[in-house]
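A further point concerns the way the authors explain their paired sequence and structure data. The central task, working out the C-alpha cells from the amino acid sequence alone, is never made concrete. I therefore recommend that a typical entry be quoted early in the introduction. An entry of this sort, consisting of the sequence and the corresponding C-alpha cells, reads as follows:
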Amino acid sequence: MSLWFAIAALALVQGATEFLPVSSSGHLSLAHSLLGQGEADVLTDVVLHFGTLLAVVWHYRDELLRTIKGFVSGVRDLAKGDREGAKANSGFMFSLYVCSGTLSTMVIALSLKDWVEGVLRGPVLVGSMLLLNGAILFSAPRHLTQTGAGEGELGAGLSLKTALLIGLLQGIAVIPGISRSGLTITGALWLGLSGTQAARFSFILSIPAISGALILHLGELAPGQQVDWGGLALGATVAAFVGTLCLRFLVGTLKRARFHHFAWYCWALGLTAVALSVR
C-alpha cells in the first residue's frame, strides 16, 4: 500500500474524528490495524494532530484574538490595582478559565498516561470504550440552555469550578475510545452551558492540551529518522481541511440539539470492533 495513501487515509480519519464526538484515538487505532500500519509513527501522529490544531485556531481565530487582547488588558488592570476592571474583562476571565481547565487536564492526563499506554490497548478495549462513549453522548441534555444576548460573550456561563471540571473530563479522555470533545461538551451541557458555549470552551481548551502533547511527542522522535516531507505535508493539509469542515458541522449539530445522535454510531462501531476481535 502506498505510504501517501495511508497517510491521507489516516489524516481523513483524524480530521473527522478529532472534532466529531466519536474518539479520534479509537478510530486511529482501528485504522492503523485495518491499514496494516501497526503502531502509529510518532512523527505522523504529531503532524496529523498539528493539522487539526490549525483547524481549531482558524475556526476560533476571532475568539482567540479577543482572549489575547483581554488577557493583556486584564494584566494591565491588575498592575494598576484595578481588580474590578480585570474581573469585568470577559477576555481576561476566559483566559483564566482556560488556564484553570488546562491545569486540571494536566494533572489527570499525566496521572493516567502510563496506565493508558501500558494497559489500555487493543481493538477489544477500544470497542468497549466506544460503547461507553456512546452512553455518554446519549446522556447529553436534549433541551439545551438558551443564553440569548450572552451567547457571544467570552466566558458566558463559565466559572472557575466549571472550568476545572471540564478540564478534568478532558484529562480522562486520554483513554482510547473515549472522545475528548464528546466528554467535555456533554459535561459542559450538563453544567448549564449552551451548545455554542460548550463547543467554544471545549475546543479552545483543547489548544494548550494538543500543543503540550505535540511537544512531548516531538521529544520521542528517533534521531536521524528518515522523513517523507511530501507525505507529511499532505497529511497535515487533509487533516486541517477535513477538520475545519467537521468542526463547523458539529457546532451546527449542537445548535440543533442533536449531539446525542452520535451515540448510535459509537455503539455500532464499538460492537463491530469487539465482535471482529473475539470471533
